[in-house]
Amino acid sequence: MEGPRVEIAPFRTVADFVSDANFTSPAVGDSARWYNRVKQNLLYYQTNYFIIFAFITVCYSAMNLQKYLTGMFILSLLLGAISFRDRTQYGPAPALAIGFGSGLRVHGPAILYTLCSFVIPVVFTFVHASLRARNMKNKMNSAVETLRVVPTPMGHLIECVEGKSSWVRSLSMEGKTK
């Protein structure tokens, strides 16, 4: 049985991504427009965002590999304990208490270092997607790409988030009713 096909979006040039860009503040008062801008930029620049995410994560891990690997190990143990304890009658609270109580005291800096290696690229991506105003070329390319039958990884991710999150679903419906 063959799973759904996924196509990787094309890499956008650095000029299109940064230097030819028109950066403006988003319409914070109109959350539907802001959401649409972020969503369209995430879809259009998804390969660029993935490369930046990978680059920052690799650089972070290369700067202090021992701290990074220690943090990854502790976070893996915590996530494993949460998923294991989630199946019991007590839920994840005891695992979180034990994990954070012992893990943060001894390995807190390593955990924070590892978390920062993931949070910084996500924040960068959100800020860029929020501030990057789309020009006519971007809009035309996006319109052509939406006609494709084969979805992209970011398209799947956005569909999952929109389907699971009632807040995101309300924003997307709000934009369609206007």
Task: List descriptors.
single chain, 178 residues, mainly alpha, two-stranded antiparallel ribbon, 8 helices, 2 strands, 75% helix, 2% strand, elongated
Write the layout of secondary structure elements.
Elements (H helix, E strand, L loop, with lengths): L13 H6 L2 E2 L7 H14 L1 H18 L1 H21 L7 H39 E2 L2 H11 L6 H12 L1 H12 L1
Antiparallel strand pairs: 1-2
Helix pairs in contact: 2-5, 2-8, 3-4, 3-5, 4-5, 7-8
TL;DR of this structure?
The chain has 178 residues and is an all-alpha fold. Helices cover 75% and strands 2% of the residues.
Structure report:
- With 178 residues, this protein is an all-alpha fold.
- The chain is 75% helix and 2% strand.
- The chain contains 8 helices and 2 strands, in the order αβααααβααα.
- It has helices spanning 14-19, 31-44, 46-63, 65-85, 93-131, 136-146, 153-164, 166-177, and strands at 22-23, 132-133.
- It has a two-stranded antiparallel ribbon with strand order 1-2.
- Helix 3 packs across helix 4 (65-85).
- The longest helix is centred in the middle third of the chain and has 39 residues, at 93-131.
- The N and C termini lie far apart (42 Å).
- 13% of the residues are buried.
- The mean pLDDT is 77.
